[in-house]
Amino acid sequence: MMRIFLTLILSVCASVFSVAATKADADALYEQGKYEEAAAGYEQVLKNEGVAAKVYYNLGNCYYKLDEIPLAILNYERAFLLDPGDGDIRANLALARGKTIDKVVPPSEMFFVIWWRNLTNSMSIDGWTMLGVSSFILMLLGILVYMFAPQLLARKIGVYGAMVLFVFVVVANLAAISQHQDLTNRDTAIILAPSVAVKSSPSEKSTDLFLIHEGSKVEIVDSSMSEWMEVKFEEGKQGWIPVSAAEII
Predict the structure, then answer these.
(1) Cα separation values, 242 from 72, 102, 201, 229, Å
(2) What is the pTM of this model?
Protein backbone atom coordinates (compact mmCIF):
# COMPACT_ATOMS: atom_id res chain seq x y z
CA MET A 1 0.00 0.00 0.00
CA MET A 2 2.80 2.39 0.91
CA ARG A 3 4.54 1.76 -2.41
CA ILE A 4 1.32 2.40 -4.35
CA PHE A 5 0.87 5.66 -2.45
CA LEU A 6 4.47 6.68 -3.21
CA THR A 7 3.96 5.86 -6.90
CA LEU A 8 0.90 8.13 -6.99
CA ILE A 9 2.87 10.95 -5.37
CA LEU A 10 5.70 10.55 -7.87
CA SER A 11 3.23 10.53 -10.76
CA VAL A 12 1.77 13.84 -9.60
CA CYS A 13 5.24 15.29 -9.09
CA ALA A 14 6.31 14.08 -12.53
CA SER A 15 3.51 16.07 -14.12
CA VAL A 16 4.87 19.18 -12.43
CA PHE A 17 8.35 18.49 -13.79
CA SER A 18 7.16 17.60 -17.27
CA VAL A 19 7.72 21.13 -18.61
CA ALA A 20 11.39 21.73 -17.79
CA ALA A 21 13.05 19.34 -15.37
CA THR A 22 16.81 19.49 -15.17
CA LYS A 23 19.30 17.63 -13.02
CA ALA A 24 20.11 20.90 -11.26
CA ASP A 25 16.42 21.31 -10.32
CA ALA A 26 16.27 17.79 -8.92
CA ASP A 27 19.58 18.26 -7.10
CA ALA A 28 18.24 21.39 -5.42
CA LEU A 29 15.12 19.55 -4.25
CA TYR A 30 17.26 16.70 -2.92
CA GLU A 31 19.39 19.15 -0.92
CA GLN A 32 16.17 20.58 0.56
CA GLY A 33 15.12 17.12 1.70
CA LYS A 34 12.20 16.94 -0.75
CA TYR A 35 13.02 13.41 -1.81
CA GLU A 36 9.69 12.53 -3.48
CA GLU A 37 9.86 15.64 -5.68
CA ALA A 38 13.55 15.08 -6.38
CA ALA A 39 12.88 11.48 -7.41
CA ALA A 40 10.17 12.65 -9.81
CA GLY A 41 12.60 15.20 -11.21
CA TYR A 42 15.33 12.61 -11.80
CA GLU A 43 12.79 10.30 -13.45
CA GLN A 44 11.84 13.14 -15.80
CA VAL A 45 15.50 13.90 -16.56
CA LEU A 46 16.03 10.25 -17.54
CA LYS A 47 12.95 10.42 -19.75
CA ASN A 48 13.96 13.70 -21.41
CA GLU A 49 17.72 13.33 -21.69
CA GLY A 50 18.33 9.58 -21.70
CA VAL A 51 20.13 7.32 -19.24
CA ALA A 52 23.06 8.59 -17.18
CA ALA A 53 24.92 6.94 -14.32
CA LYS A 54 24.87 10.02 -12.09
CA VAL A 55 21.13 10.49 -12.49
CA TYR A 56 20.41 6.85 -11.67
CA TYR A 57 22.75 7.16 -8.70
CA ASN A 58 20.96 10.26 -7.39
CA LEU A 59 17.59 8.61 -7.98
CA GLY A 60 18.78 5.62 -5.96
CA ASN A 61 19.78 7.99 -3.17
CA CYS A 62 16.27 9.47 -3.16
CA TYR A 63 14.67 6.06 -2.81
CA TYR A 64 17.17 5.10 -0.12
CA LYS A 65 16.19 8.21 1.86
CA LEU A 66 12.52 7.25 1.39
CA ASP A 67 13.36 3.75 2.72
CA GLU A 68 12.32 2.21 -0.60
CA ILE A 69 15.30 -0.14 -0.61
CA PRO A 70 14.28 -2.30 -3.63
CA LEU A 71 13.93 0.78 -5.84
CA ALA A 72 17.20 2.16 -4.47
CA ILE A 73 18.98 -1.09 -5.36
CA LEU A 74 17.38 -1.13 -8.82
CA ASN A 75 18.66 2.34 -9.64
CA TYR A 76 22.09 1.78 -8.08
CA GLU A 77 22.39 -1.35 -10.23
CA ARG A 78 21.47 0.64 -13.34
CA ALA A 79 24.07 3.25 -12.42
CA PHE A 80 26.63 0.50 -11.83
CA LEU A 81 25.97 -0.94 -15.30
CA LEU A 82 26.81 2.42 -16.86
CA ASP A 83 29.79 3.26 -14.63
CA PRO A 84 31.05 0.23 -12.68
CA GLY A 85 34.27 2.00 -11.74
CA ASP A 86 32.51 4.66 -9.64
CA GLY A 87 33.35 4.05 -5.97
CA ASP A 88 30.30 5.93 -4.63
CA ILE A 89 27.94 3.77 -6.67
CA ARG A 90 29.64 0.61 -5.43
CA ALA A 91 29.52 1.75 -1.81
CA ASN A 92 25.86 2.79 -1.82
CA LEU A 93 24.82 -0.35 -3.66
CA ALA A 94 26.57 -2.47 -1.02
CA LEU A 95 24.93 -0.39 1.72
CA ALA A 96 21.46 -0.87 0.23
CA ARG A 97 22.01 -4.59 -0.29
CA GLY A 98 22.93 -4.86 3.38
CA LYS A 99 19.39 -3.78 4.31
CA THR A 100 17.66 -6.59 2.39
CA ILE A 101 16.12 -9.56 4.17
CA ASP A 102 17.73 -12.31 2.09
CA LYS A 103 21.47 -12.54 2.68
CA VAL A 104 22.82 -14.38 -0.35
CA VAL A 105 26.14 -16.21 -0.47
CA PRO A 106 27.06 -16.58 -4.17
CA PRO A 107 28.74 -19.82 -5.26
CA SER A 108 32.53 -19.76 -5.36
CA GLU A 109 34.18 -18.93 -8.67
CA MET A 110 37.61 -19.49 -10.18
CA PHE A 111 40.08 -16.74 -9.25
CA PHE A 112 40.64 -15.67 -12.87
CA VAL A 113 36.86 -15.19 -13.37
CA ILE A 114 36.75 -12.89 -10.33
CA TRP A 115 39.93 -11.13 -11.47
CA TRP A 116 38.54 -10.52 -14.96
CA ARG A 117 35.23 -9.23 -13.62
CA ASN A 118 36.99 -6.85 -11.26
CA LEU A 119 39.27 -5.65 -14.05
CA THR A 120 36.35 -5.16 -16.45
CA ASN A 121 34.39 -3.21 -13.83
CA SER A 122 37.32 -0.94 -12.95
CA MET A 123 36.27 1.50 -15.69
CA SER A 124 33.21 2.43 -17.72
CA ILE A 125 32.76 1.36 -21.33
CA ASP A 126 33.78 4.89 -22.40
CA GLY A 127 36.95 4.60 -20.34
CA TRP A 128 37.88 1.27 -21.92
CA THR A 129 37.15 2.66 -25.37
CA MET A 130 39.42 5.65 -24.80
CA LEU A 131 42.17 3.38 -23.47
CA GLY A 132 41.84 1.08 -26.48
CA VAL A 133 41.97 3.91 -29.02
CA SER A 134 44.89 5.71 -27.38
CA SER A 135 46.82 2.43 -26.99
CA PHE A 136 46.22 1.61 -30.66
CA ILE A 137 47.55 5.01 -31.77
CA LEU A 138 50.64 4.66 -29.57
CA MET A 139 51.15 1.12 -30.87
CA LEU A 140 51.21 2.44 -34.45
CA LEU A 141 53.76 5.06 -33.40
CA GLY A 142 55.89 2.32 -31.84
CA ILE A 143 55.75 0.36 -35.10
CA LEU A 144 56.81 3.47 -37.03
CA VAL A 145 59.72 4.01 -34.64
CA TYR A 146 60.78 0.39 -35.14
CA MET A 147 60.59 0.71 -38.92
CA PHE A 148 62.29 4.07 -39.41
CA ALA A 149 64.43 4.95 -36.36
CA PRO A 150 68.15 4.78 -37.16
CA GLN A 151 69.25 3.87 -33.62
CA LEU A 152 69.01 0.23 -32.54
CA LEU A 153 67.92 1.15 -29.00
CA ALA A 154 65.04 3.25 -30.31
CA ARG A 155 63.95 0.44 -32.61
CA LYS A 156 63.95 -2.03 -29.68
CA ILE A 157 61.90 0.37 -27.56
CA GLY A 158 59.51 0.83 -30.47
CA VAL A 159 58.92 -2.89 -31.09
CA TYR A 160 58.67 -3.94 -27.43
CA GLY A 161 56.48 -0.96 -26.64
CA ALA A 162 54.20 -1.87 -29.54
CA MET A 163 53.90 -5.42 -28.18
CA VAL A 164 52.88 -4.19 -24.74
CA LEU A 165 50.42 -1.70 -26.22
CA PHE A 166 48.91 -4.45 -28.36
CA VAL A 167 48.04 -6.31 -25.14
CA PHE A 168 46.40 -3.12 -23.84
CA VAL A 169 44.38 -2.84 -27.06
CA VAL A 170 43.16 -6.43 -26.80
CA VAL A 171 42.25 -6.16 -23.08
CA ALA A 172 40.50 -2.81 -23.55
CA ASN A 173 38.43 -4.13 -26.46
CA LEU A 174 37.46 -7.32 -24.63
CA ALA A 175 36.47 -5.34 -21.53
CA ALA A 176 34.43 -2.87 -23.60
CA ILE A 177 32.69 -5.73 -25.43
CA SER A 178 31.89 -7.43 -22.12
CA GLN A 179 30.35 -4.26 -20.71
CA HIS A 180 28.45 -3.64 -23.93
CA GLN A 181 26.94 -7.12 -23.70
CA ASP A 182 25.87 -6.46 -20.10
CA LEU A 183 24.20 -3.22 -21.18
CA THR A 184 22.52 -4.83 -24.18
CA ASN A 185 21.35 -8.15 -22.75
CA ARG A 186 19.79 -6.86 -19.50
CA ASP A 187 19.16 -10.37 -18.22
CA THR A 188 19.03 -9.49 -14.52
CA ALA A 189 16.22 -8.05 -12.41
CA ILE A 190 15.45 -6.85 -8.89
CA ILE A 191 12.55 -8.23 -6.87
CA LEU A 192 10.21 -5.32 -6.03
CA ALA A 193 7.34 -7.21 -4.43
CA PRO A 194 7.62 -7.47 -0.61
CA SER A 195 7.83 -11.26 -0.91
CA VAL A 196 7.41 -13.79 -3.71
CA ALA A 197 6.78 -17.53 -3.58
CA VAL A 198 9.07 -19.06 -6.18
CA LYS A 199 7.17 -21.78 -8.08
CA SER A 200 8.27 -25.07 -9.59
CA SER A 201 6.44 -24.21 -12.83
CA PRO A 202 4.69 -21.14 -14.32
CA SER A 203 1.38 -21.61 -12.53
CA GLU A 204 -0.19 -20.40 -9.30
CA LYS A 205 -1.19 -24.00 -8.58
CA SER A 206 2.36 -25.34 -8.81
CA THR A 207 4.53 -26.17 -5.82
CA ASP A 208 6.12 -23.40 -3.77
CA LEU A 209 9.87 -24.01 -3.76
CA PHE A 210 10.99 -21.20 -1.47
CA LEU A 211 10.26 -17.59 -0.56
CA ILE A 212 12.27 -14.61 -1.81
CA HIS A 213 12.01 -11.03 -0.57
CA GLU A 214 12.27 -7.54 -2.00
CA GLY A 215 15.63 -6.25 -3.10
CA SER A 216 17.01 -9.62 -4.19
CA LYS A 217 18.80 -9.81 -7.52
CA VAL A 218 17.90 -12.55 -10.01
CA GLU A 219 19.14 -13.71 -13.39
CA ILE A 220 16.41 -14.16 -15.99
CA VAL A 221 16.61 -17.62 -17.54
CA ASP A 222 13.37 -17.71 -19.54
CA SER A 223 11.23 -14.66 -20.35
CA SER A 224 9.22 -16.14 -23.22
CA MET A 225 5.93 -16.16 -21.27
CA SER A 226 3.82 -13.05 -20.82
CA GLU A 227 3.01 -13.39 -17.11
CA TRP A 228 5.79 -15.63 -15.77
CA MET A 229 9.55 -15.77 -15.99
CA GLU A 230 12.05 -18.35 -14.89
CA VAL A 231 14.81 -16.89 -12.78
CA LYS A 232 18.02 -18.03 -11.17
CA PHE A 233 19.19 -16.63 -7.88
CA GLU A 234 22.76 -15.69 -6.99
CA GLU A 235 23.19 -18.73 -4.76
CA GLY A 236 22.16 -21.03 -7.63
CA LYS A 237 18.50 -21.80 -6.82
CA GLN A 238 16.03 -21.57 -9.71
CA GLY A 239 12.27 -21.28 -10.22
CA TRP A 240 9.37 -19.30 -11.64
CA ILE A 241 8.00 -15.93 -10.47
CA PRO A 242 5.32 -13.55 -11.82
CA VAL A 243 6.72 -10.94 -14.20
CA SER A 244 5.06 -8.22 -12.12
CA ALA A 245 7.14 -9.14 -9.07
CA ALA A 246 10.43 -7.87 -10.50
CA GLU A 247 11.83 -5.17 -12.75
CA ILE A 248 14.67 -5.61 -15.22
CA ILE A 249 17.84 -3.73 -14.42
Answers:
(1) 21, 19, 11, 6
(2) 0.81
